[in-house]
Specification:
Layout lengths: L2 E3 L4 H9 L3 E5 L9 E5 L4 E5 L2 E7 L5 H8 L2 E7 L7 E11 L6 H4 L9 E15 L15 H21 L13
Antiparallel strand pairs: 1-8, 2-3, 2-6, 4-5, 5-8, 6-7, 7-8
Length: about 180
């Protein structure tokens, strides 16, 4: 039931933009390494072109995706329809981290409103776009985004966030260096 698309079409872009949550999956090369799967929200995803997307990554408890991207670049992003017709959309490709003070960030920043706790942007060069039925995904109603993470980041302040990132975000759970190592 899966369909492969050569790029993100306008209809697929509209589907992506309508989803309040997406999931990011990455893994190290090591067989014994941990696969990471993280939910994301907060209106942090943008389609930049038919084969290029980005999300604004807010400081969190770990930085697994950045560590995996530094090692091998592999990234999968998944969207599920929890309302309306069933659908699952996956974007596969090579990702990279862009820190807010990198020159490349000047091209990304205008696509987002300021986000407290912004740690980095994650760019994905999309190599494969796949949709599937989503018949087994439950229907749920979206109420609103939680503001807990944003309030936490605001209360920590930039100096507190830098300290937190150095302590909690420098290495993956498998010991790989991240963008804050």
């Amino acid at each position: 039931m899966a369909n492969i698309h050569p790029e993100i079409t306008p209809a697929l872009k509209a589907f992506i933009e309508a989803q309040p949550v997406f999931f990011v999956a990455s893994a190290p090369y090591a067989v014994e390494g941990h696969i990471n799967l993280s939910p994301k929200g907060l209106d942090s995803f943008r389609v930049l072109g038919p084969n290029r997307v980005v999300y604004a990554d807010v400081t969190g408890s770990g930085n697994e995706t950045a560590a995996h991207l530094a090692e091998n670049g592999r990234l999968t992003i998944m969207f599920c329809a929890f309302e309306g017709p069933p659908n699952i959309l996956r974007l596969y490709g090579q990702g990279k981290v862009v820190k807010p003070d990198d020159p490349e960030a000047l091209l990304i920043t205008p696509f987002f409103n300021p986000i407290p706790g912004l740690r980095q942007y994650v760019l994905l060069a999309v190599e494969r776009v796949q949709t599937s039925c989503g018949f087994g995904v439950p229907e749920m109603t979206f109420h609103n985004h939680r503001d807990t993470l944003l309030r936490w980041a605001t209360a920590k302040g930039e100096a507190g966030l830098e300290t937190y990132r150095a302590e909690k975000n420098a290495r993956s759970i498998d010991g790989l260096p991240s963008s804050f190592a």
